[in-house]
Design goal:
The protein has 3 helices and 10 strands; from the N terminus they run ααββββαββββββ. With about 180 residues, it is α+β, with helices and mostly antiparallel strands. Strands 4, 5, 6, 7, 9 and 10 form a 6-stranded antiparallel beta sheet that branches. A hairpin with a 2-residue loop joins β1 (about 70) and β2 (about 75-85). The longest helix has 23 residues, at about 10-35. It is elongated, with a radius of gyration of 31 Å. Mean pLDDT is about 80; it is low at about 40-55.
């Protein structure tokens, strides 16, 4: 009747070789999928993108050291640096309290404004940085003020810190003006 054909045995070596090839192909496919099917990496830079000039407002993560100082009622505010990016303007100041009482700066920081040379006012974001609420007598504190971005053609900036006070004294305002880098 019918003759049975002998079954061929697949050797263990061949089975491992096939499994290895399937794994390598799957890995290569996953890598190509992550790189948008590009062999050269996640993104290649075109010549047009490579020669683009950066926006003058975006100075990146570099902090520019700009001299500036204001002194009123035993309080000194020194400008330490300015960082201009497309998303925000960060201004770093040092406030020195040479008075006898504690200097309360919470209201000044939460109501701080920045005025560009075009007269437009920008309000500080008081929650964007961790700053002290008060500075003890004879002490100083580094403070970071964060504002919305300014236009690229802005040449001068003035920062206003309203309502600084010590207990028992009337509040006073401080301002600091500087040229942009």
């Amino acid at each position: 009747m019918y003759e049975q054909t002998p079954k061929k045995k697949i050797s263990l070596k061949r089975l491992l070789a096939i499994a290895t090839l399937v794994c390598v192909a799957a890995f290569a496919g996953a890598v190509l999928y992550q790189n948008n099917f590009s062999v050269f990496g996640p993104s290649s830079v075109s010549e047009k993108e490579f020669t683009k000039r950066p926006d003058p407002l975006n100075k990146g993560t570099q902090v520019f050291l700009i001299p500036g100082e204001s002194f009123t009622k035993d309080t000194t505010v020194k400008l330490k640096g300015v960082q201009l990016t497309r998303e925000k303007v960060r201004i770093f100041v040092n406030v020195n309290n040479d008075g006898n009482g504690e200097l309360h700066v919470l209201r000044a920081l939460s109501q701080a404004t920045m005025v560009g040379d075009d007269g437009k006012q920008y309000k500080a974001d008081p929650l964007a940085a961790r700053n002290p609420t008060a500075i003890g007598p004879g002490a100083s504190a580094d403070i970071e003020l964060v504002f919305p971005p300014v236009p690229a053609d802005t040449k001068k900036i003035m920062v206003q810190l309203p309502s600084m006070f010590r207990m028992g004294e009337p509040p006073w305002d401080m301002s600091l003006a500087f040229k942009t880098p």
